[in-house]
Design brief:
2 copies of one chain form a homodimer. With 312 residues, chain A is an alpha+beta fold. In chain A, strands 1, 2, 3, 4, 5, 6 and 7 form a 7-stranded mixed beta sheet that branches. In chain A, strands 9-10-8-11 form a 4-stranded antiparallel beta sheet. Chain A has 2 domains: 4-179, Formiminotransferase-cyclodeaminase, Chain B, domain 1 (2-Layer Sandwich); 184-267, Alpha-Beta Plaits. In chain A, 35% of the residues lie in helices and 23% in strands. In chain A, a hairpin with a 4-residue loop joins β3 (33-41) and β4 (46-53). In chain A, α6 crosses α7 (242-254).
Chain lengths: 312, 312
Amino acid sequence: MDSIVECVPNFSEGRNVRKVEAIIRSCLAGPDIYLLDAGMDRDHNRSVLTLAGTRQSIGEAALRGIGKAAQLIDLNIHEGVHPRIGATDVVPFIPIQGVTLEDCVHIATWVAEEVWTRFRIPTYLYGAAARRPERRDLEDIRRGQFESLREEVTTQPHRRPDFGEASLHATAGTTIVGARKFLVAYNINLGTTELAIAKSVAKRVRASSGGLPCVKAMGVQLRTRNLVQVSMNLTDFETTSLAAVFEVVAREAAAYGVNIVDSEVVGLVPRRALERAAVQHLRIRNFGPDLILENRLELLRERRPHNCLAMK
Amino acid sequence: MDSIVECVPNFSEGRNVRKVEAIIRSCLAGPDIYLLDAGMDRDHNRSVLTLAGTRQSIGEAALRGIGKAAQLIDLNIHEGVHPRIGATDVVPFIPIQGVTLEDCVHIATWVAEEVWTRFRIPTYLYGAAARRPERRDLEDIRRGQFESLREEVTTQPHRRPDFGEASLHATAGTTIVGARKFLVAYNINLGTTELAIAKSVAKRVRASSGGLPCVKAMGVQLRTRNLVQVSMNLTDFETTSLAAVFEVVAREAAAYGVNIVDSEVVGLVPRRALERAAVQHLRIRNFGPDLILENRLELLRERRPHNCLAMK
């Protein structure tokens, strides 16, 4: 595939397997689209799909899923502990390979408009696709959930959707569509049972308390392993790499005389996140993507047959 | 491409650009074959090509180059400072992706036999393809070069080629064909001008003096940068990763109060070498290749369409 875009739609159905499978089948009922992961949660009454497709295929795949969810889910009878405002609640597009965040903003914007046009479900744009600063964070859009929003949207102009009328869809509510960078869920385990140390290290590393940019972190206890963990989300691994957080965590833990035991990735990690960690840790001065053999070969294959006479 | 095999043929011509270009064109005159790099050296009077192809294409590409070199190069009138015994001197096959070293042994063995069959050039097998322990190192095969070997081969049974008669080709000599792992040329630069420190660190890290396995290392002066360098070849980055040599060099240099300034990769590095360095440095405990998003997607694409109903 010449480009890879990830899409992680969240649907407000986490109990009826048949309905979730029907939504998955709809998403996958087109070319160049793959299911990387699927999770259902009964308590949240919510499903999260991880789809991968190309720049051309991913938008239609999301639209097929959104359309099917609108047929199967009625928010008026939905209950679950996770906040939600739509049958399809939130749909982020994430650049993986051969596409930029800006490309994903375009895809998200097109999808948001199509959702209104095709299904008469109004939509909001969030994240990098947000058209107003107060809509960058999806929690701000979702405030009050379906039950409050359907009232407020008719009376409060600042809650009006980006596409569609000032009223929600009667059963499917509204959908928040957006673009963001890949989020790496990365945990580092410390050789101590003292939770206070993990909490203190987490505080040092996270952006909100003056640590590294684009890092969220908290300290948690791992009772089964007799360890504590610094549990992190890296929201931009190009700004702050896995190697950068490892270094800070190692240093801050060492101040307590504690070592790093190991670390773990939750879910998937893009190849470039590991490459970037290696290059940064090893301080490779002449690094560029075309230093990697497979990338060089890919470039040559695209240029074929012009490489025949190239001599250094 | 479903598999990637690298081939690095060395030809005994480093002065006549037209002849080298003709050999390159022959190598590339088939499907699924790409030139990653080409180097000519006047003093060595030798050219080194870096080709990439598939399991199916790489052998024929090498054979086309070997055939063309036999037409264009006469070892009787060849002179250069680099030792050589053939118009095509040495041809290693290296697994990159989707193939094993054992696969490359099979390719090398087939090519060695074909070189004799098609061109009446006798061949030796070396490296992982060697059929006798004393032929694992190509320098042992090349001892005495073309001028001595053509005499010895007729009288000394232990110098007899693996394929072909006990006499060399009159003008093309013989060719050494083999298989080996990818060699990463990796240098670490130290913040000092004292060459003795680089030499001492190199001694600690290299396999031959009890350091890390599969590492060759020497200390050299970088006058233009006012630094010294530990210049290394990693002959098996899966046994000893870039992160492992970095760690040892950092520790040994620190014993002299010297820091690592940066490092550099010479030539190309396979993607897996960087991934392995990251995983080792970060101590990722749950790592497997399918934790990488692109690999997971590749697996799904191969299995298509069976992924549709897969639910976790």
